[in-house]
Amino acid sequence: MPHDGTAFEYQFTPRELAELWKFDESTIRRMFMDEPGVLIYGKEKRRDGRRDYVTLRIPESVARRVYERKTRRAG
Question: Are 42 and 32 spatial neighbours (Cβ–Cβ below 8 Å)?
């Protein structure tokens, strides 16, 4: 079964990327929540009114892709 290798590369936590990029952790979570390739585990959009508990793991290649997309180019 072919794969793109993201499962076996370094996986950042939102806290790690927040520290590296000098953002709030909640900003990183919003930035990556719907990004293809991010591992999301937990209960999302609960109907019982309780808080969502979702764990994100962000592959290095996904972080690089988002960084490149969000970086303004001189032009």
Answer: no
